Amino acid sequence: MIYCFQNAMVVSPFSQYSGCVLVDEGKIIEVAPSIQAPEGAMVIDAGGRILCPGFVDLHVHGGGGSQALEGTEDAIITMANAHLVYGTTTLLPTIECAPAGQMNKAALGVKQAMRSARSKATIAGIHLEGPYLSPRQAGAQQPGAIMSPSEGSWQWMLELAEDIRMVGIAPELEGAFALSDALTARGVAVSIAHSDASEEHVRQAVVHGFCDVTHLYSACSTFKRVKGFRIPGVVETALVMDELSTQIIADGCHLPHTMIQLAYRLKGADRVELITDAQRFAGWKVKEGEVVYAGGTAMIYKDGVMKLPDESAFAGSVATTDRLLRTVVDAGIPLKDGVRMLTDTPAHRIGLKNKGRIQAGFDADLLILDDNFFPVFIMAKGNIVRDGL
After folding, report:
1. Residues 6+ positions from 285 with CB-CB distance below 8 Å
2. Cα dist. 17→49, 152, 242 in Å?
3. Does the pLDDT of residue 382 top 80, yes or no?
4. Domain annotation covers residue 61
5. Which residue range forms the structural domain that includes residue 31?
6. How many whole angstroms separate alpha carbon 14 and alpha carbon 260?
């Protein structure tokens, strides 16, 4: 089936203009100011609304009542389809810190779901957040499952490396660089995650293939005073190193607008990836004040976000990707750059060459957004998922 999008405000990572898009066999084949619809094509009139690439979420633990850690094909597809409703056409199901055997089993479940025709969204690979994290920056991770990357304990990761897109590791741990060297040699993006590292550790990590920072500001070290001298941590070092991209949870709760702006101004839209870090309760009905469990960790839903029961810290989010775009635009970031941080930048980070742009040859993952940036029309893999025009 050929589709011809007309009368659209095309917002792609590098430009914003009034135009038309032609799609055939799941691919974008032409983008131009004006296109005559071929005979037999389905014409989709965007009515002057925003037409942008489908959103790419690198860091999402669950949704629709399911969690990646469950490790079943059904759970993975349920969460993928739940987030698709809000515009996420590509995602990395993210497995939080758990005993290595459980993480391995969950990763095999993601691998199975990747090859299933049942998912309407693209499940692009596996994201492992742990188990090699800092106990000092555990956040909502299971402290008892955190471990050091002793050689031999991570062989299961290498066996799955073909399907793993990203792994989060605390680089200051003994043995971390042997693991990062092995992963990067296999094309896996390695992210500084739940880390208490100093500037020296971070700079050494970059030499050993680390290329990203997991949810900047959250579970990241900041500067410390040592005998009066300020020693930068992960946050400060990441903000000034061009070699590192940074994930941020732009759900309107985890970070105030000023901190979002700081990351954007210092890193640029090409080095900031907007993530949901969503738990199973995203796209799910949770009552204010309700205590729930995810991955063995107790959480309370309050003020639009998941918190630890004592409310001392956040414990993941219930965000969807449309909410991220609203938040950054409200923070004063240009729409074009907000879209880029949700599409091209994350796709590039994990090596997806046909995702994240409205450009000939790219996959036909397309959204038409209303004035509140909610997708009223969704096309994923060239198939119409929602037509609310």
Report:
1. none
2. 11, 53, 29
3. yes
4. no
5. 2-52+360-387
6. 20
